[in-house]
Amino acid sequence: MKTFALALTLAAAAFTGTAMAPLPAQANDGVRVFEIIPANRNQVRILRRGLAQIAAQEEARTGAHAIQTGSNNSAAIGQNGRGSTALIHQQGNGHSGSIAQNGNNHVSGLFQIGENTDYQVTQTGRRQARLTIVVGN
Predict the structure, then answer these.
(1) Which of 6, 10, 35, 101 could bridge to 50 as Cys pair (CB 3.0-4.6 Å)?
(2) What distance in Å separates the CA atoms of residue 85 and residue 64, rounded to the nearest whole number?
(3) How far is the C-alpha of 44 from the C-alpha of 71, rounded, in Å?
(4) Rounded to an integer, what distance in angstroms lies between the CA atom of residue 98 and that of residue 65?
(5) Residue 34 CB-half CA count within 13 A
């Protein structure tokens, strides 16, 4: 729960004034998705640093890291390029999540909380950034 609280704090600090609205659920009824996309380079830097701090807290040593608490969770990260950061955090049961980064200098955090969520993030080109929070039943 500490990591989730840190993600929410990061979102609030980095993106004050940035639009944040629930998107339609991708999978099951009752699933809520909040996606935050930084509006400028400063917000991208804050997001990258925040995800790096979460990964360091979990003793990650690469630009791709998955944290899972619960059971029957699956996470996949694919990176083709240089300088990208991806973090998947799954807390609860029955989550499936992936981040695919093709290109350079992307940053993405996918946080899945609750039960039975399914979400995929795809970044292509260069320097795309997003923080996605998926809350299940």
Answers:
(1) 10
(2) 6
(3) 32
(4) 11
(5) 15
